[in-house]
Amino acid sequence: MEGLEDQLRRYKTQAEEAARQNQDLNNLKARLTQENFELQRQVQELDASNAALSKTRAQLQAQLDETKARLDEETRVCMCTRCLYYLILSRRCLHCCSS
Q: CA 20 to 30 Å from 16, out of 34, 54, 55, 84?
């Protein structure tokens, strides 16, 4: 009889330990689920920020391209004006016309 009582005590102790481990694992699962939810929210925010930055980058690139084109045009006009000045003075274009 004594052997059965010891065995029963061991089984109860093992069952209590298994219940504690189960509770610990459930707590861990709940914490990880919450952490995963928070990380997914952060990823969504970062995706939205990335999209906004990409849009801004495209707008800035378009502005840069437009500014470069305007500068090229102004430089061409300036150079042609300079060439006209030299043409008037020397009757030939020294810069862009190669006359």
A: 34
32-44 per-position pLDDT tens digit: 999 999 999 999 9
Backbone angles phi, psi at 51, to 5 degrees: -65, -45
Residue 55 neighbours by CB under 8 Å, 6+ apart: none
Type of residue at 85: Y
What is the rounded distance in angstroms from the CA atom of residue 64 to the CA atom of residue 77?
Answer: 20
Contact between 80 and 93 (Cβ < 8 Å): no
Q: What angle do CA 82, 86, 88 make, to 5 degrees?
A: 115
Amino acid 22 reads N
Predicted TM-score of the model (pTM): 0.56
Burial class (CB in 10 A: 0-12, 13-18, 19+), 93: middle
